[in-house]
């Protein structure tokens, strides 16, 4: 969202008249609003906005003054402000609509819809489809039929399943890539764990199982993780162990 609102000056500020404006000798202009690009304007704007948000029961972030949070027993609402750009997120769309309405009563706002771009960052919903497509090309099975499951029925891999691979390099590369893919595709985690046990002694049956996983991914290439707004899942973030050492910023 973007906000547009002149801010009343909290202090007396005078300026010489701009070109084209004539005043009697000895007269200057007194600003009634915070003029854009004046050094006092950002502070006046942020003070007005933060007072409004705090009035709506939000709390200013400890380490980021532009991050406001409001937490209740059932949900958490986040508002991130940078200049006149703003992101609002919550587990309930109704709550977001109410907040927009409350802010619109004090500020002129433009709703940009679903978040796609903010501060030079493009926001995407990633299904790792391109990554999966590259794996299919590497294994040279882009034209193979898809598999309905990543695992054959009653399959039990053994250390000496089939003939040893003459060059296990491709096997190791594919399995390593699949291990990375399990971060967003937990449905293949069990089988990837199985085939990763034979990295040092790979056989033909192990490689066939890897191809089976890839054929399953071909048919589910655009599947991804979906976090419902009604989910009880709690996301936790962790920072670097040396984060508190940056005393200049924090």
UniProtKB/TrEMBL annotation:
- Superkingdom in the source lineage: Eukaryota
Recorded hits in InterPro entries, A to Z, give: DNA/RNA_pol_sf, RVT_2
**Occurrences of domain Reverse transcriptase Ty1/copia-type (ranges):** 11-152
- Pfam families (alphabetical): RVT_2 (PF07727)
Q: Give the protein's recorded name.
A: Reverse transcriptase Ty1/copia-type domain-containing protein
The organism named in the record is Centaurea solstitialis
